[in-house]
Every structure is written in structure tokens, then in C-alpha cells.
Write a structure and sequence with these properties.
By secondary structure, the chain is an alpha+beta fold. Among the domains are: 88 residues, Thrombin, subunit H (Beta Barrel); 101 residues, no CATH class. The protein contains 28 helices and 57 strands. The strands form 14 sheets. Strands 1, 2, 29, 30 and 31 form a 5-stranded antiparallel β-sheet that branches. Strands 15-20-19-18-17 form a 5-stranded mixed β-sheet, with no helix packed on it. Strands 16-24-23-22-21 form a 5-stranded mixed β-sheet, with no helix packed on it. The radius of gyration is 39 Å and the shape is elongated. The protein starts with a strand and ends with a helix. It is found in: Membrane.
Length: 1126
């Protein structure tokens, strides 16, 4: 897995003489060196920790005019020779030599980089017979070069400058084999335009088609020839390589006739073919050449019109991912399974309906490679992806990548701690709070990484609290709890260690060390508390280079090529503490030599025997004999993605599945009671998504179930790649790419973002299906306090109910099938489990709202009668949940019952001051009342199960709010509507009598109660103020004017009082708000009222704060009186 992080790095290139071709013609990384060939010059850069130009060769103007610009180039595998073919068909050979002069980059330590010189060796014209001929790229082995010509022939040249002439290649396969993509091929898209077409079987490649690309895969002895008409032919070559071009024979034709580029992953034996449609097709060469799947950006809303055809493909060094560049826009990195790991193209979301319009350049200036991608290369470690933009000669963009090679090779990685490692840092997922996962960038100590760049291996301890990190030499350990590094005190000891693998065995770090002097390998055992030769516990010499390794408890598995398995038992004598020096002995307990023609293992993991939880403690107390607890099986993941189970007793291997990228063995890995995945044997991930395996007591010892079948909507997103598990939370932790933009930088910052996806509902469903009710209840109780528990329960019930609906639909179509299948009670079992938790009522009604109302009867037959569930919520005062049941009751029990329940709930919500909920109930009652009075046929058509009614209780209603007094139904005064009105008026009178004015305002706003009509009727009733002074004091206490919301409430009431000319209230509220203009308008027409008001404020000591207001009013009124006298 590869994930981009940070800002792209820019490597500037020399500006040569003005070439006619605005394009870099060759780009290659070998042994930490980066070669760039432009039309007029060559540059050699360091691609290691420091990006430094080491040398260059500039052609002069005379040479360019006489021999033409550089057209094609190739670098010898040993990086010592460079061949360049010019546009006038002159072959230039250059030699790369390094001087003894080191480059000083600053600091105390030298950089280890030396200046290089690129000197010409040979310049000779290639004797082509046709001067107008065109050439393809050049491929080479250690002694010969090969290039394709526009007449369909191949031309051979030696690295000594010897021309062997042309060879006519017959493009028709000897056996007529063709591999044509079909519409049933696995791809990552669903758009029909992404499905390749077919070509007739008798359509032969024209003899005169031009060869535009050659792709050589020497380990597989294959040469792929791409023609200008889009045909791709695979050819076999001899063991001697390209020395005898006449031995090159066409074997198979591939693709649909629209190929434009190709690239081979030799380790996984996969061929990636880029097409004119912007789609990349993957072909398997392991056994029979077949189309595996295709990947494209169609599902992300980008079509070929946006990106153009594929321009280049580059595989990572370990062949686990590949980068795809397009002619018109951007690049993307995919995993082999089709997960999109990184993309420079701006995100618009998955499964977009329409393709986004390409924005003007000024709006997309922050997008890298906006003009398309011309060439790409990974560095030798996979930490950097170099890319060159189309029609660009000025710079190279370097994208930094972190990787996580899970379960591969000789380094162990626990699934509890998720780590992505870059060349000089670790990106650690902080998972203490599962609601908000964060990515921590952990920089390695400069003193270590500067001398041992880059990071080679990372292993986390079983509990995830310690990280062992190895660079080019040595080893360091990080304590996550105390945030401290532990290093070798003696640097000479550090430099003697060339770590080729890391494992954790409890508190011991196991290092697979390569001894350069003797070309041998050994295991070193260091305690985690002290890295020093004096603390070395044991040294075990290995027979050969280990291929894969694993550890479980006291057992170590080491596998050599071709397939020899050795298992060692580790016994520690003494206590492992900083104050003691215990002895450690290693004994061989099992050796197997397996003969197989399958591909090599990429990972092997012990599979412990699974025991019930109540037997775990007893087992650990009694099995003092090491042979009793020795694992008898192990999982094997092969390079080609095949997952199998190996019996270590008899050596038998059973195939399980294929197309797997990674897996986690989860059984027997934790003794904690809070482990939620103990029932699971292992999980795997591939192009099918996540798959989970369970132990079975039947003939088949393990049972496979995949998340895709169980929960179609919970398949892992194809933008999220899983990194590990949090067993105590029951979630899978994945990572996806995000980009952040800034106005001060040219390019966005790539940010790996962790995401959690729960699997608890899958585990519970598995247990329920197998009638393990007690285990399911215990598992649910362990996770009941987790923040995602309610969500998991909802998805559990939803998926079971959806499956039940689908089964019933299938039974209706097949009359011969009985109505109730064997698993018909699964819904009832699920409801029985959920009844043990208070979230049950919320979960049931939430699932009902997500499904069609026609199936509610089946759900509530299993879950319980809707009125009973409503009554339980009502008694527990869970009024919001109870309100959601109103719609279900209206559908299942009829409108009369639902209206009765809604009236009860309305009164209860008013008593609890839940006015927004009360308002939704009022609107439901008014509408359902009108519908109830209509004809029964209309009532059925307008049943409350309509989606617009769901908004009443799940979301705020978007309909126009209905006013009680202005509704025409009130004039009819039906008994139903009268009940609603009486309840509201009674509550309004209660609030007004107690002068609970803030609640009154919230009540009016929430229920749309007509306050004006009510005030007109109750002017001399409960709304009357007996005394101004007491009223001002009481209302001032109820409405605290220092609180902003109280001032808003007072303004709201003042507006309504003014509309009904309620003078007593106007005076009080205007005084509290200090609204002198309102008081002035009132008093200028009633001076007697003014005098009473003035005397009251002056005579009460509590009202001294209003004397300034009184003074202002007196000045205004006196000025009015003076003007009237004049």
C-alpha cells in the first residue's frame, strides 16, 4: 500500500538550446541515480535522501544541427552506459564515471555523493535503409539493445555500437491465441463505456503496422510489442536475451485493439495495458494469460474527455501498486485490487452522475500535472514518484509516498498499531479515540536517519506500544507511551547490522541480519530495553536468505527458497529485566520441505487453534509442554494473491481464495475479555473487498463470509485502504487521501486521513445465524459502551430485514419454494438480541424509516406491536423516539389510533417544554385530521408513510408552517381539531399566568400558535397585568435583559402586543428594552398615562436604573408641549 503525503517536490532542469520538441524523451531511476534526457542535453541527479545534480552533458548547436535532436535513449542496467538516438539516426554512446570528489551539503557528516562526468564514447549513424522511417523506444539487456521500426520490424544494436540490422517480426501468434476482454471481466467501474469491446478472431495485425512501444520483461523472458493501430502482442525471447532477435516469437495477442502503452510487473506477473479510452486493463501471466480487471476514473466522474488516453504506467518496486498518467490531465496510483490510493485530480466524490467540467487553468492552478503526464518513474524504494508534465522541459515533480507492506516478507506487523512509513519518518494512526482517528507524523532522529537513510523495515510490538525501525544499518526502538527513542550507544555495533527483517517476540526484538563478509544471514535477539552487544540474548545462524518469517508466542517460522519451512522454539531461562542477563535457547521443532509449482509465498502466519473463551485461561495454566500449544497450521499468501492453509503436520495445503492483497490472523492473538473479534479466524482484503473467516465444527474447518455479501452498503470504499484492526472497538482502520489547498503554495498538500469502519454488526450476524445467542449477547454487551454501538445495531437489523424482504420477493417469484425458508426466524432472533439494550426502540424505528412502508408489518411482527413500543417509550419519557412511532402506528393501526397517541404525546411534550417536537406533532395532527375526514380512497393514497411525512419527526419540516387560527379547518371546528386547539390554548394560559415569557415565545415559534388572537381574547383574563410596578418587576426578573436571547424574546412579545394595542404590556416591555420611541409615541397622546408612569418610576427605589430613560422622555415630551404652545 502506498499513500502520498506532504507537498510535491520540484527538481529544476537545465534550459538547453531551444528545441523543436517540447518534451523530455527519456527518464529513468537506477541505483539511486536519476537520468533525464532532453532533446539537447543529459542530466544525472541523485534520487537518494538529497536531490542533487551530479553531472550533465550539453550538446552544442553544431551537433544539434548536424546530427539532429535527441529522439530516443536507454540506460544500461548497470547504469554505466547511456545510448541516445538522434532525429537524424545518429547513435551516441556515453559513459558515466564518478570522481573521488564528495559533495558537501552542510553539517558535520559528508553526504556520500560524488560528482559524475558524462563523457561521449561513440557517435555513429545507424544504417537504416529507409531515411523516413520512425522508431519506437529502446529496450536493452546487459549486452544488446532493441528498437521497433515503423515498418513493423525490430532493429538490434550492441552496447559496443555494433549494428546487427533489422528482423521481420511476424505479429500473428503461432497458435492463434488471443486474449480479448469480455463484458464479464472484473473492473472497478460500472459504466458501460468502461467495458472493453471485442475484436474478430480472424482480424490479423497488418504487416506494415508501426511499432510504437517495446516492453521487455527479462525475468519472464517476454517482450511485448505495441503497434500503432492499438494491437498488443506478447513475444517469447531466448534465455540469452536480445542477442538473437530471430528467436523472438509472437505468442499471444492481447486487448481490444486500442492499447497505447503497457508496463509489466515481473514479480506478480501482471501486465498493465493503457488504452485510448483512459482505462487500464490488468492481465495475469502466472498461468494462462487472462484479463483480471480494469481500472479507470469513470466512477469518480471523470471520462476520457477529461483525462484523455493513458500516456504512461509505472509499477512500484514491489509490484503491489501502479501509477497511471493521462495525456490531458493528472495521474493516479492504484493498488492491484483496484483501490485508488492517490490522485492529483481534484476530488468530486465517488459515483458522480456527471463528468465534471474542466475548469479554466486559473481556477485549477493548484492541481499538479494539470496539463497531463508525460513520463513517470518510482525510485528504487518506492518512497518517491517522479513525474514530468506534458510539454514541459523545466522541472520534475517528486511526490513523497509512505508505504505499509502488511504481512509481506520477513518483517512482522501487528494489526493493532497502524503505521505507514516514509523514507525518514513514520505516519502513526492515533487510535485512542475511535471517533476521531488522527495521523501523527513521527520524524526519526536525525543522528540515525542521516547515516542510515532510508527506512527499510518497521515492526510494531503485539500490544502496539513499541515500534522497531531499521534503516540501511542498525536499529532503533520507539516507545509510544513515553515518546522516547532508544538507539545503539556504540555506532560501530550499529553499522555491523544490516537488517533484512524485524519481528517482535514479547519484549524481545528479533533482527534478521545480513553478514556482508560471509554472505550469510542470522537471527539476533535483543531485549527492547537495551540495544547493545552486551545485552544480545542469542545469535542463530540461518541456512540461507529467509523468504518469509513469522512469530507466535514462543515459536518462530522461517521459510527459505524454494519452499523449506523451519519452525524454532524459543525458551528463555531467567527473568527478562534490565538488571538480569537471562539465557535464550533456540531449538528446531519442525522442518518441512514442500515441492510445489506455485508462486513463492509473500507472507506466512501461524494460525493458532481457537478455543472457547472459558477455556483460554485453563489452557494456559495446564499446557506446560511446548508441543501442546505449538500451532499446527499456517496461512500462506502467495505473490499472485492466492491464500491457502498449510497443515504443518502432514504438509498438505488447501487453497482458500485468490486475489488477496493482505490478511490478518485474529484468533488467539489477544487474551483480553474486551476483544470483539475473538470469534473470527482471520480477515483478508482484495478486489472483492473485506472478507471474514470463521471457524466451523463441520467438515470444512473454516467458513468464509465476506462483507460484500453480508452488507452490500458496507463494502470498503475504493478510496479507503485497510491498515489494521482495533479489536477492542470492533472496527477496521483504513486510510484515504485528502488534499488541502493554500493560497501561498503552488501545489496542494497530500494528507493521508485515517478512517474507521465498524465490523461489529457482521460478527453479531454471524453468531445469530449459528444460534450462538449467548455469545452474541456477550459480544454486544462488551461493545455497548462504544460510541458506534447504536449505529452498528441499526445496520445489523437493517441488513437482516433487507435480506428478509429480498427472500420474500424471491419466494413470490418461485411458487414452488415454501413461504418461510430455513432462516426465516433470523429477523426475530436479531430483535430478541436487540431487546436487551435500551437502544432497541430507536434502532427499530430508524430501520423502519429507511425501508418501504409496505414491509413495516413484517418488521413489527418480529420487533413487537408498534403501539406497545410507543407506550414503552412514552412511559420512559423518550418522547422524540415515541414521536417517530406515530407514523408507523398511522400505517399499521389506522389514523384514529395514531391521532390519539399524538394528542397524548403533544400534551406530554408541552409539559416538558419540547416545543419544536410539539410543533411537528401539531402539524401532523392537523394534516392527518383533514385527510381522515376525506374519502377513504384519498386517505389510502395520502397515507402518512409518504416520505414527506417522515420529515416531521426525523428532520425539520420544509413545508410552510400552518397557523392555527388561519387554517380553514378551524372554522369547521371538528372534534379532532378542537382538541388540538384546546390543548394549545390551555398551555398558553398556563405560561401566561406564570409569566413564563421565554417559554411562551418558544411555544409560539415552535407550534405557530396564533398569539394575537389569543391576546385579544384574554386581554382581561390571564394576560392582564394588575399593577404596572409589580408587573415591571416580575417581568424584569423573568426576562433578564443582560441575556441576548431574552432581549429577542422581549422584542417578539412587544411586536405582538403593539399589534393588539395592549398598553399595559407595551409600557412594561418597552421600558425593559429602553425603547423610548415606542413610549414617546404612546405618551404624547395620553399625558395622564405619562404622569402615572413617571410617578411610579420615581417613587420606587428598584427602578432607579430607568431614571435616565425617564429624563429622555421628559425632554422629548416637553419639547412637544413647547411647540404646541407656540
Amino acid at each position: 500500500m502506498y499513500m502520498a503525503y506532504g507537498w510535491p517536490q520540484v527538481i529544476p532542469l537545465e534550459q538547453g538550446l531551444c528545441p523543436s520538441s517540447q518534451k523530455i524523451i527519456y527518464f529513468k531511476v537506477i541505483n539511486g541515480l536519476l537520468l533525464v534526457v532532453s532533446p539537447s542535453h543529459l542530466e544525472l541527479w541523485s534520487s537518494s535522501q538529497h536531490k542533487v545534480r551530479l553531472g550533465k552533458y550539453m550538446r552544442d548547436a553544431d551537433s544539434l544541427q548536424r546530427e539532429g535532436e535527441n529522439l530516443q535513449a536507454v540506460w544500461s542496467p548497470d547504469a554505466k552506459l547511456i545510448a541516445v538516438l538522434t532525429s537524424s539516426f545518429f547513435l551516441h554512446l556515453f559513459k558515466v564515471q564518478f570522481s573521488e570528489k564528495k559533495i558537501q551539503l552542510g553539517g558535520k557528516q559528508p553526504s556520500g555523493l560524488f560528482l559524475a562526468t558524462i563523457s561521449p564514447l561513440l557517435s555513429e549513424q545507424v544504417p537504416f535503409t529507409d531515411k523516413d522511417i520512425r522508431v519506437s523506444n529502446i529496450v536493452s539487456d546487459s549486452k544488446h539493445m532493441l528498437l521497433g521500426l515503423s515498418d513493423g520490424s525490430l532493429y538490434s544494436i550492441s552496447w559496443k555500437g555494433e549494428f546487427y540490422g533489422t528482423y521481420e517480426l511476424d505479429p500473428v501468434p503461432r497458435d492463434g491465441c488471443e486474449v480479448i476482454p469480455s463484458s464479464h471481466s472484473l473492473d472497478n467501474g460500472v459504466a458501460s463505456k468502461g467495458v472493453p469491446g471485442t475484436i474478430p478472431a480472424n482480424n490479423c495485425v497488418p504487416r506494415k503496422s508501426a511499432i510504437i512501444q517495446l516492453e521487455l520483461c527479462f525475468p519472464l523472458r517476454l517482450l511485448f510489442v505495441l503497434y500503432s493501430d492499438g494491437q498488443l502482442v506478447s513475444c517469447s525471447i531466448s534465455k540469452k536475451g536480445l542477442k538473437h532477435p530471430e528467436s523472438i516469437k509472437a505468442e499471444k495477442r492481447l486487448g481490444a485493439g486500442d492499447a497505447v502503452c503497457t508496463s509489466v510487473a515481473s514479480e506478480q506477473q501482471i501486465l498493465a495495458v493503457g488504452t485510448k479510452r483512459g482505462v487500464v486493463e490488468l492481465y495475469d501471466f502466472a498461468e494462462s494469460v487472462s484479463l483480471i480487471r480494469s481500472v479507470s476514473l469513470y466512477d469518480w466522474g471523470y471520462s476520457m474527455e477529461d483525462t484523455g488516453p493513458v500516456s504512461c504506467i509505472a509499477w512500484t518496486p514491489d509490484n503491489s501498486a501502479f501509477a497511471v498518467g493521462w495525456k490531458l490531465r493528472g495521474l493516479t496510483v492504484w493498488s492491484v485490487s483496484g483501490c485508488r490510493l492517490m490522485s492529483t485530480i481534484r476530488q468530486i466524490g465517488l459515483s458522480s452522475v456527471s463528468s465534471p467540467v474542466v475548469k479554466p487553468v486559473n481556477e485549477c492552478k493548484f492541481e499538479p500535472l494539470m496539463g497531463g503526464t508525460s513520463l513517470m518513474q518510482w525510485d528504487e524504494y518506492g518512497y518517491r514518484l517522479y513525474a514530468i508534465e506534458e510539454r514541459s522541459l523545466e522541472r520534475i515533480l517528486g511526490f513523497s509516498f509512505g508505504k505499509c507492506c502488511l504481512n509481506r516478507g520477513v518483517s512482522g506487523m501487528t494489526y493493532v498499531r497502524q503505521v505507514i512509513y516514509g523514507d525518514d519518518r513514520l505516519l502513526v494512526v492515533q487510535s485512542e479515540d475511535t471517533d476521531e482517528l488522527k495521523m501523527l507524523h513521527l520524524n526519526l532522529p536525525v543522528s540515525y536517519i542521516s547515516q542510515n537513510w532510508p527506512v527499510q523495515h518497521v515492526a510494531a510490538s503485539k500490544d502496539g506500544m513499541y515500534l522497531a525501525v531499521a534503516g540501511l544499518h542498525g536499529l532503533i526502538i520507539y516507545d509510544i507511551r513515553f515518546k522516547k527513542w532508544r538507539v545503539f550507544g556504540d555506532i560501530t555495533q550499529e553499522q555491523k547490522i544490516q537488517c533484512k527483517g524485524l519481528l517482535w517476540m514479547g519484549k524481545i526484538v528479533v533482527v534478521c541480519n545480513y553478514i556482508d563478509s560471509t554472505n550469510t544471514y542470522e537471527l539476533l535477539f535483543y531485549p527492547r530495553y537495551h540495544l547493545d552487544q552486551s545485552s544480545l540474548l542469542c545469535r542463530k545462524l540461518l541456512l540461507a536468505k529467509p523468504m518469509v518469517m513469522d512469530v507466535y508466542q514462543d515459536y518462530i517460522l522461517v521459510t527459505y527458497r524454494p519452499f523449506d519451512v523451519h519452525i524454532f522454539h524459543v525458551k528463555l531461562f531467567g527473568e527478562l529485566t534490565p538488571f538480569t542477563t537471562p539465557n535464550l535457547e533456540l531449538s528446531t521443532v519442525r522442518e518441512l520441505s514442500i515441492m510445489t509449482a506455485k508462486s513463492h509465498p509473500a507472507a506466512m502466519r501461524f494460525v493458532p487453534d481457537q478455543l472457547p473463551r472459558d477455556r483460554i485461561s485453563d489452557n494456559h495454566m495446564s499446557n506446560s509442554d511446548p508441543l501442546l500449544k505449538e500451532p499446527a497450521r499456517c496461512l500462506i499468501l502467495r505473490v499472485n494473491g492466492e491464500l491457502s492453509l498449510l497443515d504443518l503436520d502432514d504438509g498438505r495445503e488447501r487453497e482458500l481464495t485468490d486475489s488477496v492483497e493482505l490478511f490478518w490472523v485474529t484468533c488467539g492473538q489477544s487474551e483480553e475479555k474486551s476483544n470483539l473479534i475473538e470469534e473470527v479466524s482471520w480477515l483478508d482484503y482484495g478486489h472483492r473487498g473485506m472478507q471474514v473467516w470463521y471457524p466451523s465444527l463441520g467438515v470444512d474447518p473454516f467458513k468464509q463470509e465476506d462483507f460484500l455479501q453480508l452488507d452490500p452498503e458496507l463494502e470498503f470504499d475504493r478510496e479507503v485502504y485497510p491498515l489494521g484492526l482495533l479489536p477492542n472497538a470492533g472496527v477496521v482502520v483504513g486510510v484515504s487521501q485528502r488534499m488541502s489547498f493554500s493560497a501561498c503554495t503552488e501545489f496542494p498538500c497530500f494528507e493521508p486521513t485515517p478512517q474507521a469502519q465498524t465490523i461489529l454488526h457482521c460478527l453479531l450476524r454471524h453468531l445469530i445465524q449459528r444460534d450462538k445467542r449467548e455469545e452474541a449477547l456477550r459480544l454486544a454487551q462488551l461493545s455497548a459502551e462504544k460510541p458506534h454501538f447504536s449505529h452498528c445495531m441499526e445496520w445489523l437489523l437493517f441488513t437482516v430485514f433487507e435480506a428478509d424482504i429480498s427472500r420474500q420477493s424471491a419466494n413470490k417469484n418461485q411458487s414452488s419454494v415454501p413461504k418461510y425458508a430455513k432462516n426465516s426466524s433470523l429477523l426475530e432472533k436479531t430483535c430478541d438480541l436487540l431487546r436487551n439494550f435500551p437502544e432497541y426502540f430507536d434502532v427499530v424505528v430508524s430501520v423502519a424509516r429507511k425501508t418501504d412502508g409496505r414491509h413495516w408489518a413484517d418488521l413489527f411482527t418480529a420487533a413487537g406491536r408498534s403501539t406497545e413500543l410507543f407506550e414503552e417509550c412514552f412511559q420512559r419519557r423518550w418522547y422524540r423516539t415515541a414521536a417517530c412511532y406515530i407514523l408507523v402506528i398511522a400505517k399499521l393501526e389506522g389514523p384514529a389510533v395514531s391521532q390519539y397517541c399524538a394528542l397524548r404525546l403533544l400534551q406530554a411534550t408541552l409539559d416538558e417544554s419540547l416545543y419544536e417536537l410539539a410543533g411537528e406533532l401539531v402539524r401532523f395532527l392537523l394534516r392527518s385530521g383533514r385527510e381522515y375526514e376525506q374519502a377513504s380512497t384519498d386517505s389510502d393514497r395520502q397515507a402518512p408513510s409518504s416520505p414527506r411525512f417522515l420529515g416531521y419527526f426525523g428532520f425539520r419540516s420544509s413545508n410552510r408552517k400552518q397557523s392555527l387560527d388561519k387554517s380553514s379547518s378551524f372554522k369547521e371546528q371538528s372534534a379532532h381539531v378542537a382538541s388540538v386547539k384546546n390543548i394549545l390554548e390551555s398551555h398558553a394560559s398556563y405560561l401566561m399566568s406564570g409569566k413564563e415569557l421565554s417559554k411562551l415565545v418558544a411555544f409560539v415559534k415552535g407550534t405557530q400558535f396564533d398569539l394575537v388572537e389569543y391576546l385579544q381574547r384574554e386581554r382581561y383574563g390571564c394576560a392582564r397585568l394588575e399593577n404596572f410596578a409589580s408587573g415591571l418587576e416580575l417581568i424584569g426578573q423573568k426576562l433578564q435583559m443582560s441575556i441576548l436571547q431574552s432581549r429577542f424574546d422581549a422584542e417578539f412579545l412587544l411586536a405582538h402586543m403593539c399589534s393588539v394595542k395592549f398598553k399595559e404590556w407595551i409600557v412594561v416591555l418597552a421600558t425593559l428594552l429602553r425603547r423610548s420611541e415606542v413610549l414617546f409615541d404612546l405618551f404624547q397622546h395620553d399625558m395622564r398615562l405619562w404622569k402615572a408612569y413617571s410617578i411610579t418610576l420615581q417613587s420606587h427605589p428598584a427602578f432607579t436604573e430607568y431614571h435616565d430613560l425617564l429624563g429622555d422622555l421628559e425632554d422629548q415630551l416637553s419639547s412637544i408641549g413647547t411647540s404646541q404652545e407656540k
